[in-house]
UniProtKB/TrEMBL annotation:
SUPFAM superfamilies: Globin-like. Residues 1-58 are annotated as: Disordered. Residues 38-49 have a biased composition (Basic and acidic residues). This is GLOBIN domain-containing protein. Signal peptide: none annotated.
Amino acid sequence: MGNAESTDSMASKHRAQSQSPLPGITRVPSVPSVRSDGSSRRCMTDRPPRRSKTCRTRTSRRKVVCSVTGLTLHQKALLTRKWNRMESATVYELGRRMFESIFTEHPHYLAYLDLKGEPNWRNHINFKIHVQ
């Protein structure tokens, strides 16, 4: 009983041959080997040979970071592009807020603008020029 496929699958001509080497029996491959240079098989712990070359040098894998800003060149380019697209009034307001927060946290920095003892340094002309 059964169909023809199941009965034929047990026939010896359709059985898969074992790929493991048997002692004393040498198997002749029907398909030519990829390694035709006669080299012996390598152990699995050996690194396989590299198939493609890379264009990167191994020493420049880390991106160069600016010592002053801590930014990469790509980050600097992105910020420059963003700043150039902003309106000048927005840039002025951001600069004013930044310098106000810096001089509020560190009032001794006001000496660089000759505003060391000035109580109303936010409205002084030196501060406004520095913000611009």
